[in-house]
Amino acid sequence: MVFPPSKAMALALDAARAAAARGEVPVGAVISDAAGQIIAAAGNRTRELHDPTAHAELLAIRAAGAALGSERLIGCTLTVTLEPCAMCAAAIAAARLDRLVYGAADPKSGGVEAGARIFSHAQTHHRPELISGVAEAECAALLKDFFAARRD
Amino acid sequence: MVFPPSKAMALALDAARAAAARGEVPVGAVISDAAGQIIAAAGNRTRELHDPTAHAELLAIRAAGAALGSERLIGCTLTVTLEPCAMCAAAIAAARLDRLVYGAADPKSGGVEAGARIFSHAQTHHRPELISGVAEAECAALLKDFFAARRD
Question: How far is B70 from chain A (nearest CA, A)?
Answer without folding.
Answer: 5
